[in-house]
Fold:
Amino acid sequence: MSESLAAKAAALDAADELAKHRELFALEDGAVYLDGNSLGALPRHVPARMQEVIAHEWGELRIRSWDESGWWTAPERIGDRIAPLVGAEPGRIVVGDSTSVNVFKALVAAVRLAPSDRDEILVDESTFPTDGYVAASAARMTGRTVRAVSPAEVPSALSPRTAAILMNHVDYRTGRLHDLPGITAATHEAGALAVWDLCHSAGALPVGLDAHGVDFAVGCTYKYLNGGPGSPAYIYIRGDHQPRFDSPLPGWNSHEDPFGMRPEYVPGEGAVRGRVGTPDILSMLALESALDVWTGVSIESVRAKSLALTDFFLECVSEYVPAGRVSSVTPSAHAERGSQVALRCDDAGSVMTELIAAGVVGDFRRPDVLRFGFTPLYVGFADAERAARALSTALN
Structure:
């Protein structure tokens, strides 16, 4: 049976319109890298671009590069390049700071837009820990309380007390895709605002921020967007909210006249209000260069391949892995699945160590979850088949 699945993988790879994009990444032959949902692979052309930035723009032009090399406008310019990947019009995303900082800005701004008698923030109970920490701090700062609920419970948990919700589009442990359109609509019907964390969905599947009326969204760029370790995050501010976006971190970069050095703060217009301090130019320009791999790629084709890859991987696991040895915690339904497969087994930590030694790189989430991220721009069907075979060996 392994030969038939290997042959099926070869046929699927031969028909894959995205297969040629693998050569754009610095991946050695035979590498099976299934951890792009933690850190995306390096696009091959980025080092040369960074050498130019360091040697010429910084080394020769120095301070002139803020104007002559476009450093000052990079946060908005790169935001406009990310916008199509998450379904946003230009002028609604600004790049900068970390995801955590942007969650804080977005959530506090959302609460400040809500009526003062709405004293509760609903937070995804299975959220990445930092989002929960930030939400608790934002609640203390704004005089609200936090209530943790599952995303599925949000419509019934909403009430006249709800000021805002903070939800993850895709669960980082299980890969479950939550109902962004439905939850956002229910939140608005209840008179509250919706803030979404897109860290595990942007670059892997369509999001539709504008189409679904999302109020605010944040995301990182070092996973499916391949921006590099610690690359800057971004914040999305819906167009009609921008004039009223009241940032809890009003820095000089978001001032209407940043070089006027006036003592009073007057925010600029548009998404620039999401800026705070001096942009981290080196990592920002590495991200901008990395986004070149998306030229001519539609997020819909990425989504189609993602679902096909994860379906095929689960098929191979079912065929190769001894019955009862692992169980999938990732939903089988396409409408509920992100771009990763999470498998539960008792000895997950040691199993992942063995897989990595065999050249199949995924990751381990305590206490018992093996996580495999499928990045369609550089992961193929043969990778999925090899990973399942290696998993079977590690489990025997």
